[in-house]
Specification:
Layout lengths: L4 E11 L12 E12 L2 E7 H4 L9 E11 L1 E7 L13 H14 L4 H17 L2 E7 L4 H14 L4 E3 L1 E2 L12 H15 L6 E6 L7 H13 L4 E6 L3 H10 L6 H8 L6 E5 L5 H10 L2 E4 L1 H6 L7 H4 L7 E4 L11 H14 L6 H15 L17 E5 L4 H7 L5 H11 L5 E6 L2 E5 L10
Parallel strand pairs: 1-4, 5-6, 6-7, 7-9, 8-9, 9-10, 10-11, 11-12, 12-13
Antiparallel strand pairs: 1-2, 2-3, 4-14, 14-15, 15-16
Helix pairs in contact: 3-4, 4-5, 5-6, 12-15, 13-15, 14-15
The chain binds guanine and zinc ion.
Guanine binds next to helix 2.
């Protein structure tokens, strides 16, 4: 954590409750002119500037952001760093897209230098988008994980990541075995989990590329190391659902494949969940797992429309975070991802309000990941990961903002028109790691 005491001044927004379960209008705190005091990488105090102005001592550095909004750093609950090089690959649905583009790109990560170069670029893209924490897939190669965590460590970001495990139905160069996948993952977990801010995630890609033996080995490793994460894909595409049901005839549905293997529980993150049944959603709720809603990917690959409000239904709410799913997804920007989430909700005849949306990208993501005691809000004691959005980032945004009646309209316009251009600055553990206005916008890497 960065040392010393400093502060940010500007409008601030932070959620303290879940707008899906309580009154959205009383789920957040908004101060039009706030002071956020940071000490040793954490938020020491946050409140109206008029009340806290006395905290600003003579030599204390103060960054003033007029025409901006200070938010908790965005949380991306599903993304693949090796797929940065193949965003926007044309014309296929999931299973053909994996074979034609994804598995080809991932083979390059046997090369440690390539993994290092892409890790650096990827982390800079996250920070430029205002994202400070993500659940990240590396590749099957252990060196892809070392390269990624080393890059994350240089920025000081809290990242959740792991080695992909696959022991069938993929090119031989990308396969491990139930045994080698377990051992290599365990060595990486022991090296990286809890080192600084890094968190390890056991990562069997999905049920179609892991044998039952590998799913069970993954579950054993996860169970043996409490506090670690597990991530995989679930019910994204109808062709995939049919394939998995054929591979696991003894299971009653797709989620049951993971449940029976021992891969369901707190800190399990399942990407997509587009085609889940009511009984699967009930099981997701009961097991405390998280779903990653990845609208740009689900639209780009033609996978389907995730039923966010069904998943979050108040009588059995499933934890849900927002995911970009690069490179099935088409933008690193959580703002652009929310823009598409709004449209997906609209096609489901529901309405994603700005309060629901910004909750999902901040505290909701932290809640999905069981990190809402330290991330996703601007409150005393929370880790000081912050995103500063510039309400005047483009001529159109500035003009449109001058016609907004209130905060919710400004937020909604930000997620409709905003993207990485709207991110004025990003703070990680209290340190300004990205400032869009500087000739050299990145620091500390
Ligand atoms: N299912 C299994 N692997 C992948 C992947 O890399 N991306 C997406 N979107 N779905 C998957
Ligand atoms: Zn994915």
């Amino acid at each position: 954590f960065g040392p010393g005491r400093h502060a940010l001044r500007g409008a601030m927004l932070s959620f303290h409750a879940d707008p899906f379960l309580a009154d959205p209008q009383s789920s957040y705190t908004h101060w039009p002119d706030a002071l956020v005091v940071i000490e040793d990488g954490r938020i020491a105090e946050a409140g109206p500037y008029a009340r806290l102005r006395g905290r600003v001592e003579g030599a204390m550095p103060l960054a003033h952001y007029p025409d901006a909004l200070i938010l908790p750093g965005f949380i991306d609950t599903h993304i693949h760093y090796p797929q940065t090089q193949m965003i926007g690959a044309f014309g296929e649905e999931l299973l053909d897209w994996l074979n034609k583009y994804t598995y080809v790109a991932e083979q390059q990560f046997a090369d440690r230098a390539h993994a290092e170069a892409v890790s650096g670029l990827f982390l800079r893209e996250l920070l430029r988008a205002g994202t400070t924490t993500a659940a990240v897939y590396c590749t099957v190669h252990p060196q892809s994980v070392d390269a990624f965590f080393e890059a994350s460590e240089r920025f000081g970001t809290r990242m959740i990541a792991g080695k992909v495990m696959m022991d069938r139905n993929a090119p031989p160069a990308l396969l491990d075995t139930a045994q080698s996948g377990y051992e290599e993952s365990r060595a990486l977990l022991e090296k990286w989990h809890g080192r600084g801010r890094q968190l390890y995630c056991v990562t069997p890609r999905f049920a179609a590329t892991s044998t039952p033996a590998q799913l069970e080995a993954a579950a054993r490793l996860w169970r043996e190391h409490p506090g670690t994460y597990m991530q995989t894909h679930l019910s994204e595409n109808l062709g995939e659902v049919g394939w998995v049901e054929g591979l696991f005839p003894a299971c009653c549905d797709y989620f049951d494949v993971y449940r029976q293997a021992g891969l369901a529980g707190p800190r399990a993150i399942f990407a997509h969940g587009v085609h889940l049944s009511e009984s699967e959603l009930c099981a997701c709720h009961a097991d405390g797992v998280a779903l990653a809603h990845c609208p740009t990917s689900n639209l780009f690959l033609g996978s389907g429309l995730f039923k966010l409000f069904e998943a979050r239904r108040a009588d059995r709410p499933v934890r849900v975070g927002l995911g970009t799913d690069i490179g099935g997804g088409t933008s690193f920007s959580p703002l652009q991802t929310l823009n598409e989430a709004y449209k997906v909700a609209a096609l489901n005849r529901t309405r994603l309000t700005a309060a629901h949306a910004f909750y999902l990208a901040t505290r909701g993501g932290a809640h999905a990941l069981y990190l809402d005691d330290r991330l996703g809000a601007i409150e005393a004691g929370y880790e000081a990961d912050l995103t500063v959005l510039d309400l005047h980032a483009t001529p159109l945004l500035k003009f449109r903002m001058s016609h907004c009646a209130d905060l919710m309209e400004r937020l909604f316009v930000l997620m409709t028109l905003g993207d990485d251009r709207a991110v004025r600055a990003t703070y990680v553990a209290g340190r300004p790691v990205y400032d869009r206005t500087l000739a050299q916008p990145f620091r500390y890497a």
